[in-house]
Amino acid sequence: MFSKEGPSYAHVLVQGKKSSASKTDQSPSKAVQSPVKTDKTPVQTDKTPIKTDESPSKLPRRPGYGKSGVPCKVRANLLCTQLQKEVKMYFYEVKFSPAIWSKKWSTKVILQLYVDSKHLLNQHKLAYDGKSCVYTSKRLPFESEDFDVKLTGTNGGKEWLMEYKVSFKFIREVDITSLNQFIERSRTDYPQEAIKALNVVLQTPPLATYELVGDSFFDRSLGDPRSLTEGLELWVGYFQSLRPRQMGLSLNINSLARPFYQTIDVYEFVAKNLEVRDLSGYIMSDKDRIKAICLLKDLMVEMLHEGRVVRYKVYALSDQPAVELMVSHDPEGEISLFDRYSKLYLTQMKYPNLHAIQIRKSTPEYIPMELFKIAPGQRYRSTLNAKQVSGMRKANCQKPTDREKIIKKACIRHICLT
């Protein structure tokens, strides 16, 4: 059996005396009231906090255990773990210049730093929380150090370069002994810092391969994605949390599902949301175009160009269909965008009346919608409709055996448990 423990609460009961004046006391002589002295001095109320024996960081001890009833075994998603007493951890503060506000992007910078500067770190691996904390199992060979990190990539066929200065500063050694003492019940103050450090270490392995959403990890390999309506699908993921409990240190791990975009053609996604069955003779109205812009804006799309995949960010749609949008094309002068890309890729495109996708913000540049697919691994952030919510509820109501398979797969792959 498990009991839910929490902080103690002090209850204060304030009793007031009821008025017991009888009817005989309400005589005319007593009805005459003396002048009331007005005193503008505010009433002093005692707002001193009630003192308790336990500080806010301390938990009350359990008075005892149940003795009546029949004991039974329960299988739960709590994995008992053991922490070696000789384990040591060191806390370093990191700062980025220029500042980075994205947890996913700052993690990329730290991963690249480790690849470039292994020799300066003495091959010691880093556990990063996505903000400003780095933990190591061994002391790094410096008190403070600055690293220059370069990230490179391509966006829309153009190469980009981002340079960052990452500053490391040693803060202190994490007090792991406090956690061992708390588990052994020799101390009552909660070891918050040690628990946070261990959770960061557990979250580090899947960061390189899984999609991070909040504190949960998602990947198509964890379970078969379930199709939702209107171009969405549910990905299976898991979250984990290490906590000291009655039986010792426990890892709570559970599965969940979240909506992601399907990796389908952009025109197919638009057709599903606009409820258009045949796009051959379809002419998009202004109302549908505005709705399509809301669906696609800020979405990452990709196309095949000269044998390699090129990614773009959607900013808007063209005001005119691709067949009516004229662009310069030497030596023929002006030509429609639809005909230009048909000749460029030597392909027969099917939907000339679809509007083109704007891939540049400052200097608008357009490419026909028909050439794009939705890039994989993108979480859907908008509000789900009633049918999608119903499908999501069914997906999250998993059988215990199916949930157990997902948990075991995540444990074996990233937490190295069997």
Automatic annotation (TrEMBL):
Secretion signal span: none
InterPro entries, sorted: ArgoL1, Argonaute_N, PAZ_dom, PAZ_dom_sf
PROSITE patterns documented for this protein: PAZ
Residue ranges with Polar residues bias: 17-47
A single MF term (Gene Ontology): RNA binding
Pfam families linked to this entry: ArgoL1 (PF08699), ArgoN (PF16486), PAZ (PF02170)
PAZ domain segment(s): 265-376
Location of region: Disordered: 1-66
Stated name of the protein: Protein argonaute 5-like
Protein's gene: LOC107778820
